[in-house]
């Protein structure tokens, strides 16, 4: 019985070592570093300018710069700029629908696609990034990235959104920080754009 235990133990150790080697191998850029991309933009919203109420809510506060009645559904097409000033360089837009999901009017189900043309890492990145989640209109919020197209194909990560100026219903400004990464299994056209 003791003699059959030793080969089984050696086999178990070899299998364990192989699993460790597989899970710790470097990603597709060949140097073991994560393939990441981070950048920031400013999103400019304006009631009845870039976003419109499509369905009136049933209860809660009146529409304000950061509040709406429970059940309000907005459709928006908000520009992204490189600076706080809405006349700075336009680098894309957010289009989607926003549904007020709390009775106090501050929480919103956010379903959006960001169309972007970003200069980063000596390259121009073109494509879309889709996000889906719940935001608090007056606090920092994190949204998961659920997909992408073009140069953002197969992207994963999150978007961090935070209020910058929420005083004027005609020009609410949010900062939007993108924290993106590609799974190491992705060996498509991204290789020439990602940092070495």
Automatic annotation (TrEMBL):
Gene3D superfamilies: Allene oxide cyclase-like. Residues 1-21 form the signal peptide. Transmembrane segments: none annotated. It comes from the Eukaryota. InterPro entries: Allene_oxi_cyc_Dirigent, Dirigent. It is found in: Secreted, Extracellular space, Apoplast. Keywords: Apoplast, Secreted, Signal. The keyword Secreted applies. One of its GO terms (cellular component) is apoplast. GO terms for biological process: phenylpropanoid biosynthetic process. Homodimer. Belongs to the plant dirigent protein family. Dirigent proteins impart stereoselectivity on the phenoxy radical-coupling reaction, yielding optically active lignans from two molecules of coniferyl alcohol in the biosynthesis of lignans, flavonolignans, and alkaloids and thus plays a central role in plant secondary metabolism. This is Dirigent protein.
